[in-house]
Amino acid sequence: HHSDAYRAWLGYRRIAPGERYNQYELYSSIVISEQDDRIHAAATELSRGIEGLLGQPAPLSDYRNGDACIALGTFGHSAAIDEVFQDEALAKIGPEGYVIRTNSTLRCIAIGASSSAGIVYGVFHLLRLLALGIDVEALDIAENPVNRLRMINQWDNMDGSVERGYAGRSIFFADNRITWDSERIRDYARLLASSGVNAISINNVNVHRVESKLVTTQFLPDVAKLADIFRLYGIRLFLSVNYASPLEVGGLSTADPLDTTVREWWRTQVAEVYAAIPDFGGLLVKADSENRPGPFTYGRDHADGSNMLAEALKPYGGVVIWRCFVYNCKQDWRDRKTDRARAAYDHFKPLDGKFMDNVILQVKNGPIDFQVREPVSPLFGAMEATNQMIEFQITQEYTGQQRHVCYLVPQWKEVLEFDTLIKGDGSSVKRVVDGSFHGNAHSGFAAVSNIGDDENWTGHLLAQANLYGYGRLAWNPELSAEAIAEEWIRLSFGGDEQLVHTIRDILMSSWGIYESYTAPLGIGFMVNPDHHYGPNVDGYEYSMWGTYHFADCHGIGVDRTKATGTGYTAQYAGANMEQYDSPANCPDELLLFFHHVPYTHRLQSGKTVIQSIYDTHFEGAERAEGLKASWELLEGKMDRELHRQVADRLAEQATHAREWRDQINTYFYRKSGIVDQAGRLIY
Ligand code: GCW
């Protein structure tokens, strides 16, 4: 009864029979020989997928040597699996990895793994191959995830609202309770697992009154039921906690991390959590950040705060994920010395080596806040003795709020490929966050989810590609943004070549288009305060949030250089520091992030700053208009209702892009008094 949009990339739409998959008998039954809920869930998924894709049932049956089948099992526990996999290669399969092999003698496709989680990933891989029409007659695939932690952060509140959510209400909470649409939650777990995600924190990092009690016996029985659903798909559950819980929930008089009663309170609470959820992942914490409580209140630092929780979690193998989004959000705009971009590094770098080994610092991809363009956070790799993970934002807070199309995988790829140069060439962010660079025990990816209870999960149908792409990239950062886009399109809409190319081109151009009509040259913000949608050039200019552009009649930009600015550039290593510090060498797209320059400053492109602002904004709005025409080509090639929904959003985007264009161009024309060389209409 669900729509194609709801089924998303797990639609298992019928593929043309007779071509590749003529050996139907190969898929005629599914064999499992272990009593394991997770393997059972995987087998059910496989059976459902095959029935959809091939139009014939694939029932579960017992293994009989010589019968055609797909066999699933962990090594050493299944006759079929052990018959197919007898070689050394298996030693390379880690806890979540798998092998898929076609054995034509035994007439069997075998998916073997060292744990049941690997079977889940293996099954989704095989289903993906079938759905993409890839030949499965001679498979020999071995895969391990590159990143250990591949996490989703929900910013859901228990009243059912979602902070920065653009796709409806929470699927987890309503009316200050955990809600029970278990089918929907299970389908979310399937979507996440199929893309490679293995962890989820279900509540907002801003933990308010009721949510603070999620770690107590009042809510733990319900939280445990959610954990049960996610566990079936290899996903571990985490909770965000309120640093001040000992006070607000426990009735203590302090939350000082060095106070023994406080430590004891957390130990008891964590013990209760593990009694309810033995494989609980751990705690996610936003402390001393944007008015949230934290160790600073007690004159302690972030190592004291996180180690207190780490100590409580340690006996159970749990981790503390401690966010580095710590900055002064009550800054005076007159004060030119305080630089929000510096804050994470300044706060955390000096603490390197002080964190317990089950603390992971979660660092936003950039130093400010998920803007369409920012440099990479200089904190990555800069803490040799500390576990780090990266935080992306799938939800499009600053990138069009799922009303504009903005495929973010290309942005994430750029961040991951960035070479920090911390130990010379080859010190890329992806190697820092996969743990190999410093040999960390814990590391990985986190990202803020973009889903809600909208029928299509993400509001804008094309925003599903960001959720899918995030998981795929977390599993393997080597995948290209384009390959991921194409996969998503084929799985979601089928393989019509014109359709695939058209949607792929829309996705691949979308980030650049959004960037070109919004805040120019890396300066960021220029959005309406609070809700962050739509243009407002001075919206944050005289606020306390530390996000300024400093435009006057002569020029624009933030001087973050060593000699005359905030000195932020010195947080980068070697050639990166030199490049960013120099207005001549700084990449154009980040120029105004690092430098305050006259409007007549010449970019590396040869254009002046002002002319580049005019050009990108006229072109950007025009290209947004062009997306509508591309989408029109797809009429008749997909479900009418879905086609219309996206067409509506693209129309809104085009109108809204004009608004951006005109406000930005007019603002800078009035400030600078410099005319557009092309003589276009500016108001
Ligand atoms: O991007 C900003 C958002 C806040 C958010 C904060 C954070 C959860 O505007 O809504 O709060 O970042 O990451 O903590």
UniProtKB/TrEMBL annotation:
It holds the Pfam family Glyco_hydro_67C. It is an enzyme of class 3 (hydrolase). Keywords: Carbohydrate metabolism, Glycosidase, Hydrolase, Polysaccharide degradation, Xylan degradation. It catalyses: Hydrolysis of (1->2)-alpha-D-(4-O-methyl)glucuronosyl links in the main chain of hardwood xylans. It comes from the Bacteria. The keyword Hydrolase applies. Residues 458-680 form the Glycosyl hydrolase family 67 C-terminal domain. Residues 133-457 form the Glycosyl hydrolase family 67 catalytic domain. Residues 8-126 form the Alpha glucuronidase N-terminal domain. Its EC number is 3.2.1.131. Gene3D superfamilies: Alpha-glucuronidase, C-terminal domain, Chitobiase/beta-hexosaminidase domain 2-like, Glycosidases. The keyword Hydrolase applies. Belongs to the glycosyl hydrolase 67 family. PANTHER family: ALPHA-GLUCURONIDASE A. Homodimer. This is Xylan alpha-1,2-glucuronidase. It comes from Paenibacillus artemisiicola.
